[in-house]
Amino acid sequence: MYILNNFYKALRLFVQTHAELDIDIKLPMLKQHINGHIRFYSTKNLQNLVEKLVEDLKIVERCSWSSDYLSIWLKKELWVSTVMKEILMSGCKYGSNDDHKGTVVSVSSDECNDSVTCLRIELLKEAIQNLAKINGYIIGNDGLNLLLSKKNNPNNSNLVLCGNVVCNVNVKEYKQRKQESVTKMSANRIESEEYPIDIISKLCHASIVYELLSVRHNKVINTECDTSNKDSGIFIMYNYSRLCQVWKAYENGVIENYYESLPDICSVNFGLLTSNEEWILILNHLSMYPLVIQQSVQHLMSASVDVHRLCKFLMEMSSAVSLFYHRHHILSDPIASLLPLMYARLYLVKTSIQVYENVFQLLGIEAVREM
């Protein structure tokens, strides 16, 4: 069980036991620049629980009551080191759970042609199967049979309705249009007359996956309405690539004997990660990822799935990574006084890369480590 799940359960149980309340926990949001505390609101005065909460929940550093909400500050170093260890130990399985172990489901579609809507259905089908498996489901024919279709049928309770994609071209032309757009955007970043075709192809697919899956499955997507030059799929991959380049630069430094090898995680002082950008990335994204995985298919047995949550998660995490990258130097000179912070940030880079790649795998996206 992951630390966030354990903390949520312990906190809810504590409040239910001592105040007979069910609580809705609010995590710090990126735009609010809250200094890393968790809060929940209550019409009932909980001032008398403050001291006992700190005593009972060892991960809590302090808390305070203010008119209608309780704020909780976590022991950051303990929280961060626990999350880092969970990610590195679990690797590609980080976020997986056995909540639906042994439950059998199948996912099928009722049509296949050269429309972009059918491409959306196929991408959605793959993502649902991947999400089901990581949540403990077994993909087979002896259980719930989910049908993905753009045709609404109120009599079919197992129907996962897929909204139409408004597009005036077929799949081949749609992909060609995407490739031209991605090539044009990449031209300013690649100093070569011949662009790497494999990179362009992967970026194109990432762009398509994000565009077709970032909207809830039953909603219509209008590809003709987007006149901006922004591409969220490329933005996500660009920030992932940034982290990979930092990690590669460090590894090259180790090979050249400029840096020492990364020390054991148990000897790293994660208490040095004190900035809002670092804490938001850790708490709201690395810690939250397993919960996002759970919530994405929590109503799967009712033919409801939230693949778009993964896309939203990727976008918000990439915004957090971008802030972290721009506001903090990760690699420093190999000076003894600077190395402890560099090592802590390198572990943050390494674990962030792992979470990125886990989401990419679920969505059927191939990672691009260099852009």
UniProtKB/TrEMBL annotation:
GO molecular function, one term: ATP binding
InterPro entries reported in the protein's UniProt record: DALR_anticod-bd, DALRD3, tRNAsynth_Ia_anticodon-bd
Single GO BP term: tRNA C3-cytosine methylation
Protein name: DALR anticodon binding domain-containing protein
Source organism per UniProt: Aphis gossypii (Cotton aphid)
Family annotation (Pfam families): DALR_1 (PF05746)
Domain DALR anticodon binding as annotated: residue spans: 236-371
Classification via PANTHER family: DALR ANTICODON-BINDING DOMAIN-CONTAINING PROTEIN 3, DALRD3 PROTEIN
